[in-house]
Amino acid sequence: MAGVKGKSGRKPLSTLRRITEQIISETSPKAAQYLRDVATGVAKPPDPARIDTCKFIINQDIGAPTQKIKVNEKGKVVFEVVYRDKLRG
Question: Which residues have a Cβ under 8 Å from the Cβ of 38 and sit 6 or more positions away?
């Protein structure tokens, strides 16, 4: 069965999704740096919640198996950490 003419291809990303992907892409290098600091003993004491957040950011950026991003309390915490670090520069 053929598709509807003019309706083929990928749907455009919503503004929220586009902004979310941009934030994840921009913060991925800092997340990797923090994990490296933890691995080399520079970050003391390592924060388990921050480590999980960094792993999530990196997995989303490199295209690990897709997980739907739902904004709930846990998601709110992830983005608060990202924004807080972004503001620190």
Answer: 46, 51
